[in-house]
Amino acid sequence: MLxxxxxxxxxxxxxxxDEINQLVQGLKDKGLNPIDFGVGDPQEPAPLFVRERLKxxxxxxxxxxxxxxxxxxxxxxxxxxxxxxxxxxxxxxxTEIASNIGGKEAVFHFPEAILNPGDIAIIPSPGYxxxxxxxxxxxxxxxFVPLLEKNNFLVDFEAIPHDIAKRAKILWxxxxxxxxxxxxxxxxxxxxxxxxxxxxxxxxAD
Length: 206
Known about the structure:
- The longest helix has 15 residues, at about 75-85.
- About 40% of the residues lie in helices and about 10% in strands.
- The chain is an alpha/beta fold.
């Protein structure tokens, strides 16, 4: 018996970073020492005080059992205080903060919570691969916006066609940007937010 993956899974193709890893490994197999511009793995260990606190926590608390599904309330309250202190943003830890196991999980699953089949997610190109794959898994439609040097590698949202904006529910942005290194100004964000409100589009900032 031959079991085939779903059409949805097959439609995704090879994961971009997996393809890069294969290219890097192929060069290494030839005796070369390439500079790897693939996944952004940290090159330095976590700070000593972080590792020490983690060890203390393991010894002090029971580490079995399932955690809260959106993060414990004390954790979310701490996040809210940090956002207020760092950015002056007031968030309700009860309803506006949730934890997850990592950025990839959040980016991939977010479209499933927002998109209905046929809805559009506007995605920068180049961009983080889970933005696209998460959209496809949610049966949404990716619409790619090129990041161009002439626009300082900013998403040119004002150039997005009206019919696309009308069907879009998410616009992904990523600043400071990977891989371009571009940074968006406060004025850019003000214009972006005003545009998104006009079209009732949710800005998803990675």
